[in-house]
């Protein structure tokens, strides 16, 4: 009996049952039903034909779809800015002034990181052997205590900049990591402000929303994108200019450098680091350079498609429309990648190989390099991407070089590296070989490996690499168009 019931359960198809004609259907009803079904099939076919025609039209028009993948802080946003700088230079240059607020926030955040470390610091007695004190007292040198006090205005500037970057309707977006920045701004004089924003990260949605918020003055007056800031009062820039000497003194203090080193806080290795350029970036008439925009740190959340018409470069014909899709790289956003795999021409995957000694901010039990390797395996093995060219950027090679040169042993964190030489050339060859082997082993179909060691903030080397990628993608795109 059980077997018969099981067989019946597996044979039963609710959809088939619903579509079956009524038992008491008349001839007239049958004719009407068949006519309706035929019309439904016609509409469905028309939709399918329209989708196919649109895809073919995109191919003929020269629309190229490029997807940027990689974990958070791998360099995707910087790579996008490099594309914009190289191939839509007019728009890129016009928007440089908008990045000044981002760079101002980067500076303030660097200073706050140092001040937060000092505020929690318990210096050891002279005879304690160099360990932090647990007696609950702080014996900071008087000079550092005075610097802390004089740099207090930066708290207000931080809140002000967050409110400028995140318009009211984007408030919920930036509160991913905690309480709302706008509510923090409105209550920034409260005692809770310092605690609530000490470790919070600021997120914006990718695209033009945050830029649109910055094109309006504090009283709603539109600001020209070409404005250098010389004729528009900028409270944040004025405060940073007045604090220039104190910030420089704080950053160059020997005790501060030693404390940061002991806590393994490497500000100079992070994006958005400008403390070595304070005289220039805190000048009242400061306008960000191309390199400043590329180095600026602005974390994004969500997915956005950037459309740009390639301008004429080096005698080439313009007119190719590129759609570059920038997706979030945090672990919670990785599942959102798959819907964008359809009809993509190429993928640039960024793996920050300098992060071999770091962990994910979302999960501190996971090594960042190990996470990049797992993501690369998943992308290579995905059957939806079997016919898509994958371009690998082994990124942040400048930071990797600096770490190895400082004496940090790669083999301590990557056991398979063994007793190889602890230098940049050997390490880059090792990583390229490992990622290439994964590409070869996990790809559903054989395909060529495109791998580059990159520092995407470096305009000189990146320009040549992106030119090669551009030519490769265009050739592939034209080949597929002819087949269509």
UniProtKB/TrEMBL annotation:
GO biological process, one term: adenylate cyclase-modulating G protein-coupled receptor signaling pathway
UniProt-listed Gene3D superfamilies: P-loop containing nucleotide triphosphate hydrolases
Organism: Rhizopogon vinicolor AM-OR11-026
Record's protein name: G-alpha-domain-containing protein
Pfam families per the UniProt record, alphabetical: G-alpha (PF00503)
Binding site residues for Mg(2+): 300
Recorded GO MF terms: G protein-coupled receptor binding; G-protein beta/gamma-subunit complex binding; GTP binding; GTPase activity; metal ion binding
Keywords: GTP-binding, Magnesium, Metal-binding, Nucleotide-binding, Transducer
């Amino acid at each position: 009996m059980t077997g018969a019931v099981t067989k019946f359960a597996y044979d039963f198809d609710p959809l088939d049952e619903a579509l079956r004609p009524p038992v008491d259907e008349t001839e007239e009803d049958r004719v009407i039903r068949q006519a309706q079904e035929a019309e439904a099939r016609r509409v469905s076919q028309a939709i399918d034909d329209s989708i196919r025609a649109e895809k073919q039209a995109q191919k003929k028009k020269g629309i190229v779809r490029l997807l940027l993948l990689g974990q958070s802080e791998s360099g995707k946003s910087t790579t996008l800015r490099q594309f914009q700088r190289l191939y839509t230079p007019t728009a890129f240059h016009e928007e440089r002034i908008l990045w000044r607020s981002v760079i101002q926030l980067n500076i303030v955040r660097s200073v706050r990181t140092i001040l937060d470390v000092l505020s929690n610091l318990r210096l050891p007695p002279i005879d304690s052997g160099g360990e932090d004190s647990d007696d609950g007292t702080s014996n900071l040198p008087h000079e550092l205590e005075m610097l802390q006090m004089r740099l207090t205005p930066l708290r207000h500037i931080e809140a002000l900049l967050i409110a400028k970057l995140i318009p009211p309707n984007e408030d919920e977006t930036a509160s991913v990591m905690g309480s709302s920045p706008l509510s923090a701004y409105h209550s920034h004089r409260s005692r809770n402000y310092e605690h609530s924003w000490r470790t919070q990260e600021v997120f914006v949605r990718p695209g033009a929303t945050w830029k649109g918020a910055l094109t309006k003055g504090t009283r709603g007056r539109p600001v020209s994108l070409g404005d250098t800031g010389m004729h528009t009062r900028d409270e944040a820039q004025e405060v940073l200019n007045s604090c220039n000497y104190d910030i420089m003194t704080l950053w160059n203090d020997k005790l501060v450098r030693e404390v940061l080193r002991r806590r393994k806080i490497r500000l100079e290795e992070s994006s958005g680091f400008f403390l070595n350029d304070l005289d220039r970036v805190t000048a009242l008439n400061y306008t960000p350079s191309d390199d400043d925009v590329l180095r600026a740190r602005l974390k994004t959340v969500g997915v956005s498609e950037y459309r740009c018409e390639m301008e004429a470069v080096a005698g080439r014909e313009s007119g190719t429309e590129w759609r570059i899709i920038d997706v979030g790289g945090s672990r919670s956003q990785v599942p959102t990648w798959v819907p964008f795999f359809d009809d993509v021409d190429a993928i640039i995957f960024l793996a920050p190989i300098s992060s071999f000694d770091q962990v994910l901010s979302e999960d501190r039990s996971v090594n960042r390099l190990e996470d990049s390797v797992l993501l690369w395996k998943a992308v290579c093995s995905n059957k939806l991407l079997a016919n898509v060219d994958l371009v690998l950027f082994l990124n942040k090679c400048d930071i990797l070089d600096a770490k190895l040169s400082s004496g940090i042993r790669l083999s301590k964190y990557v056991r398979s590296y063994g007793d190889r030489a602890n230098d940049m050339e050997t390490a880059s060859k090792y990583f390229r070989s490992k990622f290439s082997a994964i590409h070869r082993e996990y790809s559903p179909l054989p395909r060529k490996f495109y791998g580059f060691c990159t520092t995407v903030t470096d305009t000189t080397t990146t320009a040549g690499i992106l030119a090669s990628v551009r030519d490769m993608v265009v050739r592939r795109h034209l080949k597929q168009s002819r087949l269509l």
